[in-house]
Amino acid sequence: MVYCTASGRPCRPLAGRGVYLAARCAAWVGTGPHKMRLPAIAVRGSADASKILKMRQMPSTPTSTRRGSSAGLPPTPAQSSNHSRVRTMFAAADTTQIELISLANCCWSGAPPEFRASSWRRLCGIESENPALLTTNRAAYRKLVDKLGPADGVASDQPTWHQIADLDLPRNAPDLPGMQTPPVRALVSRLLYIWAARHPACGYVQGIMDVVTPLVAVFAGHRGYDMTTGKDDGITEDQWLDVEADCFYTFQAILAAFQDAYTASQPGIHRMLRQLGSALSHVCPEVKQHMDEVGADLLHVCFRWMNCLLLRELPLALDIRLLDTYLSELAETGHSTLGTQAGLPLYHVFVCAALLAQFSAGILEADFQQTVHLLQHVRTLTDSWGDEELAEVLAQAHLWRNQYWSPGRLSD
Amino acid sequence: MAESEEYYDYLFKLVLIGDSGVGKSNLLSRFTRNEFLYESKSTIGVEFATRNLKMEGKTVKAQIWDTAGQERYRAITSAYYRGAVGALLVFDITKRATYDNVDRWLKELREHADPDIAIMLVGNKTDQPHLRGVSTAEAQQKAREAKLSYFETSALSGDNVEASFTELVKEIYSIASRAQIDVAGSSWVPTQFRPDHAESVPLGGPAKPASNGGCC
């Protein structure tokens, strides 16, 4: 059992994660079991968040290696051991079954790039040691395309198709040429259209397109597709359909957990925002109080964080890294659509809280306008983040969730 | 934020509304930063920007809230109308459907916004005259019937963008000065952003710089 040295509480005995957390806990001198202090991240006396960030640069990794595709990010020491565990699992997959929970435990702190596509499919339950499962799923998706997809470019639900293909697709991921090539545009629009048709209570909601981007990056990237140039290395039409099927099922698994965030009036988002307010008043009361005082409503500053699952607030490489953890969370807490109260959405709330905590010094110095500006442009700061920074946020969120959440404790 | 930006006499909250894809975000970026992005991502929730304008020697800070156009977000965007003193209702002159929806947006404003809100109808994308689907005369007629002012703009070329925002701010300023009401006080803004915490500061009265110092 791994114990948190600050709170004296046992950390979850997950390989890598527990060790990492214990190390982090030791670094943060706690002031009591319910008042764990934040790591000293910020320069007081400055509202300039970029200065805060400079303080947080890890000296061991040069900034230039922090950008680009996920494959370009060097693994952290904690990740390396998990990466080799995953590699061992897949190497022995012919003879030894990969336990889903062990895979989730390892991938929680980042999947090794070469096994990421397969790991994600397993975490979503569309691939197993029996190769027939994946084949069946991909065939089932082709049937969906025939049944629900636009036939010869003509969709039966024109308003939805117009919103997806004409209005939103051309302005999707403008910084990534790989999202604007003909095969990927066709993939994204059809996938979303089919998902909307199968989920009439949600339909197509702006912002869910952002979820598709990291999925394309991983599943098409696994076939040699280059997101930064859009070069496809001779991927056949049939292979593109396989990629689309993998993206679709992964997308479906993620959104199933957040379904009520996209239904009429978006009750799930309002619940998560209430939970975030409540979580903040436990973990960062001064930030909560300051935001209340200047009138920076979480509805103004964090709506998009909930609606786009933070994916717009991070560069692509970290979106992918975030989904490693989220898909592992899904596999651990179950794929039930009823899990919305305590599963992945709750963890997401704590990730948002941990992210706010990262910018606490900036927020505490800011007035209303500066707070809104800071939190609506977090991407300008996270663009230079590497794995370490995100890993810290994710570990902090995990710790806080375990510490502060019990049924009924956070207002729903 | 430039220091001079922090000083103002009055704060007007404006909202940008209208169907998805009509160019609201680009109108805002053109007006506040003189920028246009061919591919700006869809707005989720609300985003905002500010710009200071001079009116009769006073500094008016226009705090403009850019909202998401998609139907699904209606429930939350209406929450952003609170305290707004002006609205730019934007449609795309090349897309008839976005013009047909103007009535729905007006209904939305009547239901959720302050009854005295100043509304301006804006037909955007005049840089595409060959694709025009709504004539100027027709839009002017609708605006007259609904007692709105009407402007045609191009966020791409910048045509009339400055004029439309300025006109709306001028309109609000003149209504406010005629009525001798405290505009900043009635606007929904955080307390310390209101000049002198604005209980009942008459227009033209002493103004207080923003909470963190202002220009002096």
Automatic annotation (TrEMBL), chain A:
Name recorded for this polypeptide: GTPase-activating protein-like
All residue ranges annotated as the Rab-GAP TBC domain in the record: 110-330
Residue ranges, annotated region (Disordered): 57-84
InterPro entries: Rab-GAP-TBC_dom (IPR000195), Rab-GAP_TBC_sf (IPR035969)
PANTHER family per UniProt: LD44506P, TBC1 DOMAIN FAMILY MEMBER GTPASE-ACTIVATING PROTEIN
Top-level lineage group: Eukaryota
Provenance organism: Carpediemonas membranifera
Gene3D superfamilies listed in its UniProt record: putative rabgap domain of human tbc1 domain family member 14 like domains (1.10.8.270), Ypt/Rab-GAP domain of gyp1p, domain 3 (1.10.472.80)
Annotated Low complexity bias: 59-70
Gene Ontology molecular-function annotations: GTPase activator activity
TrEMBL record, chain B:
Major site of localization recorded for this protein: membrane
Alphabetized CDD domains for the sequence: Rab11_like
Keyword Transferase annotated: no
GO cellular component: endomembrane system
Gene3D superfamilies: P-loop containing nucleotide triphosphate hydrolases (3.40.50.300)
Keyword Lyase in record: no
Any one Gene Ontology molecular-function term assigned to this protein's record: GTP binding
InterPro entries linked to this entry: P-loop_NTPase (IPR027417), Rab_GTPases_membrane_traffic (IPR050209), Small_GTP-bd (IPR005225), Small_GTPase (IPR001806)
Keywords of this entry: GTP-binding, Lipoprotein, Membrane, Nucleotide-binding, Prenylation
Pfam name, any one: Ras
PROSITE patterns: RAB (PS51419), RAS (PS51421), RHO (PS51420)
Membrane topology: Lipid-anchor
Localization, UniProt: Endomembrane system
Family: Belongs to the small GTPase superfamily. Rab family.
Protein name per Swiss-Prot or TrEMBL: Ras-related protein RABA2a
Protein species of origin: Carpediemonas membranifera
